[in-house]
Design brief:
single chain, alpha/beta
């Protein structure tokens, strides 16, 4: 059965309020361009809940680079097919004006971890992430929401958001899904040229094998790529590397 598709918060809320009391709801928030990593999140939600909701919303407030936002892949037909294949019950696909009736006058900010790593290079990025996730969680009201560990900084901040605001939602981390050659699956990978795609797994290989983060960074820079950061923090090694026009992120335990 094809999932129900809701385009406004009001439609979603009306449907959600009519679910039988006690229905367990799982939630997977995405920006679309779904791949096997997203599919793993959906499968885990479907296996653990009676109802699974998928959101598809390319959130402009988390893009500090307008060109990056404009180039973000849109694959709604394929996304809905994948949702149907995996037993998703409802898809929320809103537009900006319905999600931000205030035109982003109100936002959520975190003043420590969000200023490091990606936050340092992308000012305002995590404000947009936290704000839209708060909105989505309050609309869907799931028992569980599923986030991939590839975006570990995002995951960590969302866990903190739920704790700080006493939100009654459980955030479920899901391990990073990788290609056979080790490259972390990402919607941005489709923008890599064949040559760039062949080279990209070197990022993960070096993150795992280099003795220090600075050693890995030096090797990557010697290959002619721009490294936004490659740092060890709180027992993990984090990297953001620009391969051509595409910014790839990854992290591993150390």
């Amino acid at each position: 059965m094809s999932p129900l598709v809701f385009n406004t918060p009001e439609e979603l809320q009306a449907w959600r309020s009519n679910l039988p009391a006690g229905t367990t709801v799982g939630f997977v928030p995405t920006m679309g361009a779904l791949h096997k990593g997203h599919e793993t999140l959906l499968q885990k939600s479907v296996s653990e809940n009676q109802i699974t909701v998928l959101s598809i919303f390319v959130n402009p407030t988390q893009f500090n680079d307008k060109k990056d936002f404009e180039k973000y892949p849109l694959t709604m037909e394929a996304d809905l097919a994948l949702a149907k294949k995996n037993g998703v019950h409802a898809v929320f696909n809103p537009i900006y004006s319905s999600m931000y009736p205030d035109d982003y006058r109100y936002k959520i900010s975190e003043n420590d971890f969000s200023k490091k790593l990606c936050g340092k290079d992308r000012p305002g990025h995590f404000d947009g992430v936290l704000t839209v996730v708060m909105k989505l969680l309050n609309l869907v009201q799931p028992q569980k929401a599923y986030f991939g560990e590839k975006d570990y900084q995002q995951l960590h901040l969302i866990q903190g958001l739920v704790e700080a605001f006493f939100l009654p939602y459980k955030i479920v981390p899901v391990a990073t899904v990788r290609e056979a050659d080790g490259l972390a699956m990402s919607s941005r990978n489709v923008r890599l040229s064949p040559t760039e795609r062949a080279w990209a797994p070197k990022i993960h290989q070096l993150m795992k094998t280099a003795t220090t983060a600075s050693e890995a960074k030096k090797i990557l820079e010697n290959d002619g790529v721009e490294v936004d950061y490659l740092e060890d923090l709180d027992g993990r090694r984090f990297a953001a590397v620009r391969v051509g026009e595409v910014r790839l992120i990854d992290n591993v335990k150390i």
